Amino acid sequence: MPEQLDLTIVYESGEDGWILASIPEVAGVFSQGRTRDEARANVIDALRLMLSPAPGDIDDQREREALHLTIAA
Fold first, then answer.
1. Do residues 9 and 21 touch, judged by C-beta distance below 8 A?
2. What is the pTM of this model?
3. Based on the structure, what is the number of domains in the chain?
4. What percent of the chain has pLDDT above 70?
5. Which residues, in sequence order, are CB contacts of 9 under 8 Å at separation 6+?
6. Is residue 57 assigned to a domain?
7. Measuring CA to CA, which residue among 33, 30, 37, 32 is closest to residue 7?
8. Which residue range(s) make up the domain with 15?
9. 33-64: per-residue pLDDT in tens?
10. Contact 13, 19 (CB under 8 A)
11. How far lies 66's CA from each of 3, 39, 63, in Å?
């Protein structure tokens, strides 16, 4: 059975007409854009970068399992 992860994008007015966007459920994921659509796209890119796997260390012998998330909205 598929599981769903629900996140929220929060929009705020920034300086000089910029729109700030953040995803409070994931610390450190925030961005901005000139429009709401641009801010949304940029914060989703920030989320992808935050969740991207770090390069593995050859000495790291921990077991791993791939987890695939789909962003749909």
1. yes
2. 0.76
3. 1
4. 92
5. 21, 22, 23, 40, 43
6. no
7. 30
8. 10-51
9. 999 999 999 999 999 888 887 776 778 888 87
10. yes
11. 15, 29, 10
